[in-house]
Every structure is written in C-alpha cells, then in structure tokens.
Amino acid sequence: MAVSGVMITAAITLLALPVVATELWQAPDSPFVLGEAYPETPATCVTVNDWIEKAPQVDGRVSFAIVGKLVGVGWDGALAYLVMCKEGGVQVLCVTYSKDGREVGDTVLFGGGYNRVDERRIMLDPCLASRQE
Which CATH architecture has domain 24-131? Predict the structure, then answer.
C-alpha cells in the first residue's frame, strides 16, 4: 500500500507540472513584473501576441511594458488615450494625463498597470509613455 501512495504522489506531481510551466511570465525577457517597476525587456507589437497568454494571474499589481508605433491618439480634456499596435492583432491602450505632442506614427515606450480587457486588447492604467528614438 505504501508503494501505491508513492505512485499516486508522483502522478499528482507530474500532473501539476503544466501549472508550473504557465509561469512563463517570469522569464528574463518577460515584459511583465510584479509591482510598479518597469520590466527589463519590453514587448513589441509582434511579441505581445504571445505574451498576452502568459500574463501573471495574481491579485496584486502587475506592470507591463511595450515599445512600438502609435496607431491612435485621443484626448477627452482630462485624459490622453494612446493606442499601440495595429488592429487585427493585440492592441495596447495607454491611459495617461497628456498627449505630450505625441502623434500617430511616433515610436514610444509604454509602462503601466496591466489590465487585459478582452482577447485582443490590453489597457495600461495608470500608464507612462515616453518617446523612443
């Protein structure tokens, strides 16, 4: 009977391995970090399509960073709405306090609080946006 208990424990451990593998957001090149820091490596409009499925499932703040060209810029009189990445793929919305002269086509770095809106949209709120050369 002790052998069966060991076998059951081993089987349960093996079944749990895919759950551990879902922690890919902790990889060194991850655009995610817990808390309010900027990740070392931002996503791009190409890689965000893979990273959206690897986001951490935690109760605390998750920060996300991405670099790319703006495809939309809006202002409602109080907040600026900056959109990165073309329709058809994952789009990222940065909610911030100023357009700061940014226009469609500008290359920027977004960093902020990660919120997945739906299958193909991420909202960073609050968000900082900085020009990139």
Answer: Beta Barrel (2.40)
